[in-house]
Amino acid sequence: MGYNVVVVGATGNVGREMLNILAERAFPVDKIAALASRKSLGTEVSFGEKTLTTEDLDTFDFTGWDMALFAVGSTATKQYAPKAAAAGCVVIDNSSLYRYDPDVPLIVPEVNADAIHGYTKKNIIANPNCSTAQMVVALKPLHDRAKIKRVVVSTYQSVSGAGKGGMDELWDQTKGVYVPGQEKEPKQFTKQIAFNVIPHIDVFMEDGSTKEEWKMVAETKKIVDPSIKVTATCVRVPVFVGHSEAINLEFEDFLDEDEARDILREAPGIMVIDKREDGGYVTPVEAAGDFATFISRIRQDSTIENGLNLWCVSDNLRKGAALNAVQIAELLGNKVLQKA
Q1: pLDDT (tens digit per residue) in 75-112
Q2: How far apart are the first and last CA of the chain?
Q3: Considering its fold, how many domains does the chain have in total?
Q4: Residues 89, 130, 234, 312: which is the catalytic one?
Q5: Are residues 121 and 184 in the same domain?
Q6: Are residues 117 and 177 in the same domain?
Q7: Most buried one in 73, 107, 255, 337, CB count within 10 A?
Q8: Shared domain check, 207 and 74
């Protein structure tokens, strides 16, 4: 016996990826519905070998459905997620709307699976920000061993984090560099993204940080440990898929790089590829399409006491969004609903 599953926002990058991953991981589905806004109504999307026709989110009745994976923005989520939750359908939300709500668990299954039981307060579970998700998968096993005091992270985030429009803009601007007359002015980003990097993701806050940077701080504290100090610089780079992060860690206790490497090799969801030779590390090109969070360049930081550096890469459309949501659905099914 399987579950009745809804994917909301099924025509977007993340929604399509959710459908792909549900099929790839053979999630136990009895019925599945693909929902979209009226402008995308009737669009066909793939679910394994099946083709689904999108239904109207505005008129959909969530009664009798077990769980809904939301891949729409905060505005639409605010309107429709409470309706689904009130109808008894557990919402797994990929937007930022509920992440900081104390009555909504923020889940990365490899890190804080037990928090899943808190969903009953609102019938909603939040999926973290893409840059946070991959980082905390790497932090948790190291934190359990030596307790992390401080994290300094710089991100190199792909344009797919800004949706299809971001990917199109990189493609169009790249062509425009080489073809006279096809130059494209920035629309999705504040400056040219082709052959450039932009140290600005989301809106600026009063203290000079961006909201993307604030998200990494707040979400790491909620998911891993509120005592961890986090400072982040988030940068958009001309990569289509895959976020990378240079992470500097300061621990309470000494942690040798060899032991850290061994711990990470045994940790769930992580693949360590760390050879000190040309190409002995992972880049976004290799990570795209994969489920794992890849860790490379593990080394001591001798400039601080108990310091460690590492390089972290993951497919942001997968672990950063769709895969994590499906893993939450699996966790919900296995630990709570238990119909299958």
Answers
A1: 999 999 999 999 999 999 999 999 999 999 999 999 99
A2: 5
A3: 2
A4: 130
A5: no
A6: no
A7: 107
A8: no
**Which position among 89, 143, 234, 243 bears the catalytic label?**
243
Q: Is 243 a catalytic residue?
A: yes
The dihedral through the CA atoms of 173, 175, 177, 182 has a sign that is: negative
293-299: which pairs have CB atoms within 8 A and are 24 or more residues apart?
A: 293/134, 293/137, 293/138, 293/269, 293/319, 294/270, 295/138, 295/264, 295/270, 295/271, 296/272, 298/257, 298/260, 298/261, 298/264, 298/272, 298/274, 299/257
What is the CB neighbour count within 10 angstroms for residue 36? 23
User: Residue 86 is encoded by which pair of tokens?
Assistant: 């009130």
Q: Which residues of the chain have pLDDT under 70?
A: 339-340
CA distance linking residue 32 with residue 116, whole number of Å: 23
Summarize pLDDT for 241-286 with one digit per residue, the tens: 999 999 999 999 999 999 999 999 999 999 999 999 999 999 999 9
Instruction: Give me the CATH number covering residue 49.
Output: 3.40.50.720
Q: Are 295 and 311 in contact (CB under 8 A)?
A: yes
Q: Within this chain, do residues 213 and 237 fall inside the same structural domain, yes or no?
A: yes
Is there a single domain that holds both residue 233 and residue 297? yes
Q: Are residues 22 and 90 in the same domain?
A: yes
138: CATH: 3.30.360.10
Sign of CA dihedral 240, 244, 105, 140: positive
- Determine the structural domain holding residue 165 and report its residue range: 131-316
Cα angle, residue 256 at apex, residues 254 and 260 outer, rounded to 5°: 110
Helix (H) or strand (E) holding 21: helix 13-24
Model pLDDT, residue 105: 98
Instruction: Give the phi and the psi of residue 70 in degrees, each rounded to 5.
Output: -95, 125
Whether residue 325 is found in the same domain as residue 312 = no
In the sheet where 148-157 sits, what is the strand order? 229-236, 148-157, 243-251, 307-314, 293-301, 270-272
CA 57 to chain centre: 23
Determine contact, residues 315/241, Cβ cutoff 8 Å. yes
